[in-house]
Design a protein that fits this description.
Elements (H helix, E strand, L loop, with lengths): L2 E3 L2 E11 L4 E6 L3 E6 L1 E10 L5 E8 L1 H4 L17 E6 L2 E7 L5 E7 L6 E8 L9 E4 L4 E6 L4 E6 L8 E5 L17 E3 L2 E4 L11 E4 L29 E4 L6 E5 L4 E7 L2 E7 L3 E2 L4 E9 L7 E8 L2 E2 L7 E2 L2 E8 L7 E11 L4 E10 L5 E6 L3 E2 L4 E8 L7 E6 L2 E2 L12 E7 L7 E10 L9 E9 L5 E7 L2 E7 L6 E7 L2 E4 L12 E6 L9 E11 L4 E10 L4 E4 L31 E7 L5 E9 L8 E6 L11 E7 L4 E10 L10 E8 L1
Parallel strand pairs: 22-29, 31-37
Antiparallel strand pairs: 1-2, 2-20, 3-4, 4-5, 5-6, 7-8, 8-9, 9-10, 11-12, 12-13, 13-14, 15-16, 16-17, 18-19, 19-20, 21-23, 23-27, 24-25, 24-26, 24-28, 28-29, 30-32, 32-35, 33-34, 33-36, 36-37, 38-39, 39-42, 40-41, 40-43, 43-44, 45-46, 46-50, 47-49, 47-51, 48-50
Length: 679
């Protein structure tokens, strides 16, 4: 059975070799493998076989004698390493280490002709390195260090060596004792996980795995007791460490502080000929790939399963001989989120080892695009049609609503509409305000969790000249002139003291403009001789209004009798206010002559005013009521007729007396009646 720690899956042993001297570190170069014997005072150089195993012996080097600064990255002659790593650029090997006495990295070229370290250069580091740290190359862009000064995990960018080192996390548990003597290299980072073991002479664990971003220990440390599960016998009990090969991840090196080195196999299944879209939107996607194995691997068959965001798309099928070609999986769009989605291919070999290949599929969502227009940018009373053309990705179902001056005309549509969506809405002029009106459409594409509202708008400018009302008030009669500069029909209403009196409700029927109307306020609604408020409102066909208002005292409306002191004898309803008192008369007596004024308060002109005495309680022969146009001479007439026109406010005077003869015996009340013809 394979053994897995983090993402590394161990499946067996490739070789077991006996080397010269006690092994402290195994560092992989381009053509050579460098084996540190106790420390960097003695480094054995071996040829590297194509499969990554150690080949023939070349020579030994004392890197301390090449440059004493080596002692800053690994103490001379003892078991205290600080942190260092071998890496390769363009076929040239280098060693870089973090100084224990400086806030510096020191880097040397490993000369190809004799493997001496030469050409030291230095780069800034955030602090110095503590003893028993670790360094290692990831086989690509970065050299990594674990510094026991602060337990921080750092990476150094080989493409930007002068840039500051980046601290990715603090390793939990102070490294869980994986900080022992002799071994200063072997830190290996792959994906989001960092791996290293204890010192080669220590028993604290062959390999540990830590999360690069959080520093947490992933699972448990690998120990010698796990070796038999994949067919490997421990070299020296619990002691030793394992160092993965950064350039050939199908193998790792297992050794103790002795001469034995075992090369271990790891599962190295890979994918090839992939058709995996990096972008998606509304449709399910098909992925295709082949499963292959690294040439240095020992897997013979494989199967797979796929997961999207952790949800299984298929289960493992029976194993098939490698390579396993023409694999395909459907990834439902319903299982993906807007943004980055993680597609995981788990590749399982005949040992049961599982390699995970992770891909990112980004689900995109373009917002709808809206183009709006109106049939006319201006209007007076004509209807205007608003039109919006909305385009979006074909699979999206859009909903929308239309707003006028930010007020929704309807709620969001229930049904969804595909692109292109064309929305038309007609507006009457009376729906629009004077001036600029904004017609807006708001659209949502409702794709997954997207709630963004996109809007488009057009402006309709309503052009209208307001109607005009002109009122002249004569008495209680209104002379109303209505006009509209645009020639619109007009409607009106009249309110007296807040109560509508014309028409009974709403506005009048439409009248052509201009128009004039005379209207006398109803007597029963007038508060006589007190303050009254009269309001006349007019509205045109475009919905614009004008208003006339007046507040003041209103008197009686009619042909009113007044005395010489302008006091009324009756109200306009005929209610008695005062008598014309002629006193006591006896037979054969004649009263004095009394002047009475008639005033037109109707509010409109009248003619043919006729005054007629009504005897009432008095005898028409012996107690005669006489009226005259003048008092000197007083010329009695049975009635008085005034054919002229009398406008509002005009007055006329006449005179009254009573004449008694011998038969006068009674007394009582009499009346005078006035009539006239309205013009």
């Amino acid at each position: 059975m394979p053994y897995q720690i983090g993402d590394l899956v161990f499946t067996g042993q490739a070789t077991s070799q006996t080397l010269s001297g006690n092994i402290a570190d195994v560092m992989v170069g381009d053509k050579y493998i460098y084996v540190a014997y106790q420390n960097l005072n003695t480094v054995y150089v071996y040829n590297k076989n194509p499969d990554g195993t150690i080949g023939s012996y070349v020579r030994s080097r004392n890197w301390v004698s090449n440059d004493s600064y080596i002692t800053y990255i690994c103490a001379s002659g003892n078991s205290v390493p600080y942190g260092y790593a071998v890496f390769t650029e363009n076929g040239q090997d280098y060693i870089v280490g973090w100084s224990s006495s400086h806030s510096l990295l020191f880097m040397w070229t490993i000369r190809q002709s004799d493997q001496a370290v030469v050409g030291r250069v230095q780069y800034n580091a955030p602090t110095s390195m503590a003893g028993y740290g670790r360094g290692g190359w990831d086989g690509g862009q970065y050299v990594w260090f674990w510094n026991r000064n602060d337990y921080g995990l750092y990476k150094w960018d080989l493409n930007n060596k002068t840039e500051a080192m980046v601290r990715t996390c603090t390793i939990a548990g102070s490294g869980y004792s994986l900080d022992s003597s002799y071994t200063g290299s072997g830190l290996y980072v792959a994906g989001d996980k960092a791996y290293w073991g204890s010192g080669s002479n220590e028993t604290d664990g062959l390999l540990g795995c830590f999360d690069v971003n959080t520093g947490a220990l992933v699972g448990s440390k690998m120990t010698y007791s796990n070796l038999p599960s994949f067919g490997v016998t421990a070299i020296n009990g619990a002691a030793g460490c394992i160092q993965p090969n950064p350039t050939q991840p199908s193998i790792a090196y297992y050794f103790t502080f002795g001469t034995t080195l075992k090369t271990l196999f790891l599962t190295t299944l890979d994918v090839a000929n992939t058709t995996i879209p990096t972008m998606a939107h509304g449709n399910d996607i098909e992925i295709q790939f082949d499963i292959t194995s690294d040439l240095r691997g020992n897997s013979t068959s494989a199967t797979f399963r796929a997961l999207i965001n952790g949800t299984e798309l298929n289960s493992f099928a029976p194993l098939l001989p490698l390579p396993v070609t023409n694999n395909s999986v459907t990834v439902p769009i319903s299982l993906m989120n807007i943004g980055a989605n993680t597609l995981t291919l788990e590749l399982k070999d005949n040992y049961g080892g599982i390699n995970r290949k992770v891909f990112t599929i980004t689900v995109t969502n373009d917002q709808p695009s809206i183009v709006t227009s109106v049939s006319s940018a201006t209007t007076h009373k004509e209807n205007v049609v608003f039109e919006a053309t909305v385009t979006d990705e074909p699979t999206d179902l859009m909903t929308y609503r239309v707003l006028l001056n930010d007020v929704p005309l309807d709620d969001w549509t229930v049904s969804g509409y595909n692109s292109p969506l064309v929305v038309r809405r007609s507006f009457r002029s009376d729906q629009l305000n004077m001036g600029a009106n904004e017609v807006k459409i708001e659209v949502k594409d409702n794709f997954k969790t997207n709630t963004t509202i996109v809007s488009g708008q057009s402006t309709i400018t309503k052009l209208n000249k307001k109607p005009v009302v002109d009122v002249v008030m004569k008495g209680n009669t209104l002379y109303m002139d209505f006009n509209d500069p645009d020639g619109d029909q007009v409607r009106f209403r009249v309110l007296l003291n807040g109560k509508q009196v014309l028409p009974e409700s709403g506005y009048s029927i439409p009248f052509p403009s201009p128009t004039s109307i005379m209207y006398t306020l109803p007597k029963k609604e007038v508060i006589t001789n007190q303050s009254n408020t009269v309001v006349v409102e007019v509205v045109d066909s475009a919905g614009d209004t004008d208003m006339w208002a007046s507040t003041g005292a209103l008197g009686y409306s009619g042909l009113m009798f007044k005395d010489t002191e302008s006091n009324f004898y009756t109200t306009d309803f005929g209610t008695l206010l005062k008598y014309l008192n002629v006193g006591v008369l006896y037979a054969r007596e004649q009263s004095g002559i009394y002047e009475i004024t008639v005033e037109n308060t109707l509010g409109y002109p009248v003619k043919n005013i006729k005054l007629t005495p009504i005897q009432g309680d008095l005898d028409p022969v012996s107690e005669k009521v006489e009226i005259s146009r003048s008092n000197a001479p007083f010329s009695p007439e049975s009635e008085l007729l005034y054919p002229d026109s009398y406008d509002t406010g005009d007055t006329l005077k006449f005179y009254v007396r009573l004449t008694m003869n011998d038969d006068a015996v009674g007394g009582g009340n009499f009346k005078i009646k006035v009539t006239g013809n309205a013009l």
